[in-house]
Structure formats: C-alpha cells, structure tokens
C-alpha cells in the first residue's frame, strides 16, 4: 500500500499507534509527557514549567513556489506557522531550531533573505534561533522546530463539549483566495489584492489572543491551517463531539468578497492557511472572551452531540449542506 | 555567490552573524540561552534545569541511499546521530519531534519500518516521540529534533586548553570503510565486513560515556561526525587553540585494517560518521577518565598553542603531515 492511497492522516494515525505500542522501559520518560502526537504542539513537564514543542516543514512545490513568494516572506511564514501552533496552546515561543534543505546553486544572498524573514518573526514573537542544520537537497525545504512555554493552563483540542459555542479570531479564506489568484494569474494589484497576498505570505500568528483566551477560561482551541471545517472536525474527533457551523456567521474580509464574489465562502470554510485561532467554550465564557478580543473574534457555531468529527454547515434557510471534502492532504 | 562556491561552513558562519546582529527586544529570551549555534547542541536554562536541543537531517542521495540501507536502519541512524549530539554535551535525551519528507509512492510498510528503527533507538536511549510532521517531498528526508537534559555540568567545544590531552571513545573509520566498500562494490560478507556495515548503518551514540566524562571532570568534548581531524579542528577553533594527533595512536578496528590495509588510517583520520566522543582535558583527568572507560577509550593527541583550528598529524618518525582536506561539506 502506498502513502498516496491512504493519505496523510491515516498514515499519521498508524504511526501514532506504533509509538503508543512501543514497549516502554523502566526509567520511563513518558511520565513527564502531558500531550503527545495529535495536538498543535506537544507538551511536557519540566521542573516548574510546562514546555511546548512543535515542528512544521515547508517544501518547495508543495507548500510554496519561489515565483509566488520572496525568500524573506518564506522565512517569516515558516516561523509564523510554528508560532501559530504555540499560540494555539495558549503559550509563548522561546527557542527554535532551523533546518534548511538547499540546492547547491542557491544564492547565498537568498539564504540571508530567508534568515532575515525568520529573524523578523523571531523578534516579533520574542524567540531565538538556538541552532539548526543545513543540508543539500534537490528542492528547497525549511523545517522549524519551535519550543515554547505555557505559563498558565493549556488550550487543547480535547476540551470541546456539547453545548459549547465555537468562535474564531480574525477572518477566514483570504490566504486561500490569494493562492487561487496567483495560480490563475488574477491580478492582485490594489489594496484588496494586496490584502489577500499578504494573508498568504505573511500570516500573523495569534500569540496574544491565545494567552488571552486561557486567562478568560477557554480550554479548547487550535489554529486553522487546513481550513475551518477540516480543522473543526479534527477538534471534534479529539473531543468526541460534532459541530454545526452557521455559514452566514463565518467572518469574511471585504477584500475576499470583492475578489471572489462567488467562491468566498468556500475559501473561508475550506481554504486553509489562515492561522487564526478556533476555540470553543461555554456561552458565558465565549461571549466574554469574544468581547475582550473586540471585533477580532466571531462566534460562528456550536458543539453538538454527534458522531465524533462530524461537522455540518448550515445556511440561512436552515438547510444542512455537506461540506465539500476540504482540507489539505498533500499525499492524495 | 552560490552556496556551492562558499561551502556549508562559511554559509553557517554568515547566518550565525545575522542571528547575533538581530536586534533583540525588551523582554529578551536570550538571557536564558546558555549555548547557541556552534556546539553539538543548543542549551538553555529553564526553571531548575538545563535543557539541550539538537537537530539533524538525513537526505536521500546525500546522506544515505535506499539501496545501501534498510528503512529500519535508516530510522535508527537518524535518531542515533541526534542522540550522539546530546551525548556529546554530557546529557540524556528526553523528547523528540520527527519530520518525514516522503514521496507519495512510498510504501506505508516502509514508513512503518522506518518508525520501528526510530522507536528502537528511542527505547534504547529512553526518549519519546512527542510529535512531528509528515510532508510530501521529491526525495526522502528525515529531520529529527531532539530535546535533552543536562543533569550535571555540560561538555562543550570551547573548553580545550593548551597542554590538555586529547582522547576518543571506541575506534574510528569503520563507517567510512563500510561506505567505501558499498560504493566500490567490495563484498562485506563475513564478520569483518559486517562490522564495517553495522558501523555505517547502526552507529552507537555514547550517552553513558558522555555522562561519565562529565562526572570525571572533563569539560571539553564533541562527537565525531565529520571525521577526527575536521572535528578536532572545529573544537580547536571554538577553544582558540591548535592540536597535534599522533597517527599511530589513533584507534583502528582490526576489521578496518583487514579490509583496507592501505587506507585504514585515512578513514580513521578523515572518514566521518563515527559518532564516537572526542574529548580533551588535563592529563590527570584524562588518564582517570580513560581508565574508567576501559578499553573503549584511547589518548591520541595533545592540545597546543597554535593558530586556532590548526591540527597537525604526526607519524611515528615525527614528520608532520598536513591532513588531507577532509570532513564532509556536501555543498562543495
């Protein structure tokens, strides 16, 4: 059986099973592990601290193309998507290891630009490059491993409960709109176009929002990288629940509606690459949290008792539409 | 200027400069950093603990070929080379993040074998897979990020002092001999051949030896991955010293002499992929440490006042030979 036949998520599930089955030894380190494979970041306990760790890789031709993104934006994004995983736990990033796979004919100045992008994200989110590795490769790839700290309790995917309201920060679908425009050669001139392009190449991880959610009593959250419906479904699987999304409540930026008057909702529901926070909690907590986050958060659905992972999208007339098979699976 | 023109190490140096120049912000995380880019692992201080972190990547066609190594051995080695970096700091590994770059047509069972190799190393060295990432790629790569803990003081590359003796664990050159034999189609049947092959595909990181060195007062150490002369030169650069190696003292396994009666010394001096520990210290400390490690450690040189990084290899007749330009630079 080949990976492309079963897809990324079945493969990960089978590897997770192998890890869990692996015989553990006497002086077992797992007693310190708080969260393993399956959340935005791993978490373990060290003396007095809960530490977080995540890793994300961007591969040329799969996650980016050099003609669509500058080296500096690439560096920013590679770091930002990892910072977003730490934000989704309610933590703050600390140290990072940067691995670059590079073609020998790559210009040194381009690598410096890449690093400048990485470093500008490090400055913005107060983390530091502690080490890394550089290897020769036939296409460019960037792997960031990011360590963080949770100063309070953690946000996890397992804590959504039936009756909870579901909300998100920011607006959704802009990055997917930007990508579609680039792929189809649609001009991104003007403010609207630039907004979509920036959403794609310069995502803003929600570190402060994540920490604020924790301090307001939210316990269930994740970041949206594979699309709202797909990621909400993952949260629902982890929590053993289902969810309903009210399509008309999904926050969409005017620039996206301008550029894609027909398709904006599909981008917002299934686009991906948003790096906004998706969170759930009891009504009174959600309303307080959303008020605190101001116009930058929106309630858009509810957690329900359902087959775990089932997410239904409801339109204004109440008619349930099956979400299109969305989300990213680069292997299928 | 292209990477292949300046090489891996000049590129790393220039990136390190960028990191150091990067403006630091008010709530600066660097105050907790103990060791950044340039040693076997990074180290930082968390409440009550010194934490270590390292990352190493193996790329198909650069660091391994599928026809020469099984998926399971590949998994072992990918983890072992990282564990070796933690061993070189005198620490012990704890948690790891595993990133796999895989072709879509890769067999799922092969990925499982890879994971079995990784997991067997995890069991052996008591560390745990806490997370990771799987991405589509045009050739296989494996990136391991490994976290560890230093329970005592650390071994670093900066602590070699003139007059120190230089010693290594184990014997050197077998992995390079194994690689040469595979590349030239020389049979590796029989015990000798198998020894060389195992040295190449199943290296044994020296975690216990590293911890023992710390407890015996050794402060300067690193692991040998790029070849004895090249790595000793790196330690010397970090410490601002030079070194002399007595060629006839370099420990060489009989299997390597058998297989390569002409070239064994060149493999031992410049071969790489050894994952033995190279360490330096005052005579009385080194002799005590070597005695404690038994037949598994050998004194082979001395640290001298010299141009930082200069390593001279002396043969029996006292004639200094300039080391061949050794070490691995995959970009040149």
Topology of this structure?
The structure is a homodimer of 332-residue chains.
Chain A: H1 3-21, E1 33-35, E2 42-46, E3 49-59, H2 71-87, E4 92-102, H3 108-125, E5 128-136, E6 141-150, E7 165-169, H4 174-184, H5 190-201, H6 207-215, E8 220-223, H7 228-239, E9 242-246, H8 254-259, H9 264-270, E10 277-281, H10 283-293, E11 297-304, E12 311-314, E13 320-321
Parallel strand pairs in A: 4-5, 9-12
Antiparallel strand pairs in A: 1-2, 2-3, 3-6, 4-6, 7-10, 7-11, 8-10, 9-11, 12-13
Helix pairs in contact in A: 2-3, 2-6, 4-5
Strand composition percent of chain A = 15-25%
Give the biggest sheet of chain A. 7 strands, mixed
The number of helical runs of chain A is 10
Helix content of chain A: 25-40%
> What is the approximate shape of chain A?
globular
Q: In terms of quaternary structure, what is this?
A: homodimer
Explain briefly what this protein structure is.
2 copies of one chain form a homodimer. Chain A is an alpha+beta fold. Chain A has helices at about 5-20, 70-85, 110-125, 175-185, 190-200, 205-215, 230-240, 255-260, 265-270, 285-295, and strands at about 35, 40-45, 50-60, 90-100, 130-135, 140-150, 165-170, 220-225, 240-245, 275-280, 295-305, 310-315, 320.
Overview of the molecule:
The structure is a homodimer of 332-residue chains. Chain A has helices at 3-21, 71-87, 108-125, 174-184, 190-201, 207-215, 228-239, 254-259, 264-270, 283-293, and strands spanning 33-35, 42-46, 49-59, 92-102, 128-136, 141-150, 165-169, 220-223, 242-246, 277-281, 297-304, 311-314, 320-321. Chain A has 332 residues and is an alpha+beta fold. Chain A has a seven-stranded mixed β-sheet. The longest helix of chain A is centred in the N-terminal third of the chain and has 19 residues, at 3-21. Chain A starts with a helix and ends in an 11-residue tail after the last strand. The model of chain A has no long low-confidence stretch (mean pLDDT 92). The interface between A and B is large, with 83 and 83 residues.
């Amino acid at each position: 059986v080949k990976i492309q036949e079963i897809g990324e998520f079945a493969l990960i599930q089978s590897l997770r099973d192998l890890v869990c089955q692996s015989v553990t030894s006497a002086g077992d380190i797992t007693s310190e592990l708080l969260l393993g494979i399956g959340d935005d970041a791993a978490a373990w306990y060290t003396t007095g601290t809960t530490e977080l760790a995540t890793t994300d890789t961007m591969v040329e031709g799969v996650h980016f193309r050099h003609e669509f993104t500058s080296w500096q934006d690439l560096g920013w994004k590679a770091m930002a998507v990892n910072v977003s995983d730490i934000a989704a736990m309610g933590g703050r990033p600390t140290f990072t290891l940067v691995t670059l796979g590079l073609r020998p004919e790559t210009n040194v100045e381009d690598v410096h630009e890449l690093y400048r992008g990485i470093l500008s994200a490090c400055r913005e989110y107060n983390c530091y490059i502690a080490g890394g590795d550089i290897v020769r490769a036939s296409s460019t790839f960037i792997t960031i491993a990011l360590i963080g700290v949770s100063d309070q309790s953690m946000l996890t995917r397992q804590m959504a409960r039936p009756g909870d309201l579901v909300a998100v920060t920011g607006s959704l679908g802009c990055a997917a709109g930007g990508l579609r425009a680039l792929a189809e050669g649609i001009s991104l001139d003007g403010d609207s176009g630039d907004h979509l392009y920036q959403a794609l190449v310069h995502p803003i991880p929600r570190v402060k929002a994540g920490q604020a959610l924790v301090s307001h009593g939210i316990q269930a959250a994740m970041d949206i990288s594979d699309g709202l419906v797909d990621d909400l479904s993952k949260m629902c699987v982890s929590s053993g629940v289902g969810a309903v999304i009210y399509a008309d409540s999904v926050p969409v930026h005017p620039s996206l509606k301008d550029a894609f008057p027909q398709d904006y909702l599909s981008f917002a529901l299934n686009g991906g690459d948003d790096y906004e926070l998706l969170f759930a909690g009891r009504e009174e907590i959600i309303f307080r949290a959303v008020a605190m986050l101001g116009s930058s958060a929106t309630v858009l659905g509810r957690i329900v008792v359902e087959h775990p992972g089932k997410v239904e999208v409801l339109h204004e007339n109440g008619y349930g539409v099956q979400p299109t098979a969305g989300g990213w699976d680069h292997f299928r």
